[in-house]
Amino acid sequence: MRLIRPGDVAVFTLAALTCGLVVWACWTQSPARTLSIRQGGALWREVSLLHNARYHVAGPLGDTVVRVEDGRARIESDPSPRQYCVGQGWLEHAGQSAICLPNATSITLEGARAYDSLSF
Amino acid sequence: MTASASERLTLVARPLDRQVASLSALAIVLALVDAALPTPLPGVKPGLANIVTLLALYRLGFAAAVWVSLLRVLGAALLMGSMLTPGFFLSLAGALSSLMLLAPASRLSRRLFGPVSLSLIAAYGHIGGQLLLARLWLIPSDGILYFVPAFALAALITGTVNGLLAARLLRRWPSSKH
Question: Shortest Cα distance from B114 to chain A (angstroms)?
Fold first, then answer.
């Protein structure tokens, strides 16, 4: 009887891959805990991502509406002409941000690791 | 009619019962050794007793493996004084979920899948069941996710090592039935 059979190698590989996946998912994807909202360069408010809410931030052009839901955040509406920050959609990972330049408002997810940008 | 006191009630232990009992005793001793070893993280253990469960599965069948595994959980808890404590329920949950995975896994082709496969499957079953119970009952927070990779890595190592040990021991123990 051989100690290691072909299927064992397959099961071991699968287990090792599971390990890698779990390490990636639990250790490198640090979940964001808070959201900082900036207006005109100054911190307007730092809010928790644990509570679903809508925030109206007054800027030079009007109100930027920030929405927090299920640990994610997005710019829901903004008076800027091109709507880039609204188009960015939901932000989920620490370090991600959305900037509404004309209205001088930005949101950033704060967490352990902050990347300037992520591309896939 | 009442039964007279002189009537003797006898329990006959079949050879299989004796083998299950001796394997269980061995598993309990290994569980105590496990508990005595210092670990970096509570819950990370070599799981040496699982080697005995595998031996029972290979030589005596799945039912015997269930007996050996559950008697070990019970016996070790009695000896360590952890009966009905959270630790006891964690170890019971681990044993049950690993047995649930071993049931289908033991039907895999023996030519392709050896003790190392079953040991790895059992090890992952153990941490899976324990983490699930811990998440649902003991630590109802996603903070527990932070420790999952450590448990998974430990299961990979202990599962492989225990599987290799079981394979070596099975080599020395011929498969002639009790």
Answer: 6
Q: Is the pLDDT of residue A93 over 90?
A: no
| Among candidate residues B65, B63, B61, the one with its CA nearest the CA of residue B53 | B65
CA A42 centroid distance within chain: 21
ipTM greater than 0.90: no
Q: Which tens digits make up the pLDDT trace of B70-107?
A: 999 999 999 999 999 999 999 999 999 999 999 999 99
Whether A17 contacts chain B with CB within 8 A? no
Q: Kindly state whether A28 is in contact with chain B, defined as any CB-CB distance less than 8 angstroms.
A: no
Domain containing B102: what range? Answer: 15-172
Containing structural domain, residue A5: 1-30
CB contacts < 8 Å between A and B, how many? 68
The answer to whether position B177 is within a domain reads: no
Residues A2 and A20 in one domain: yes
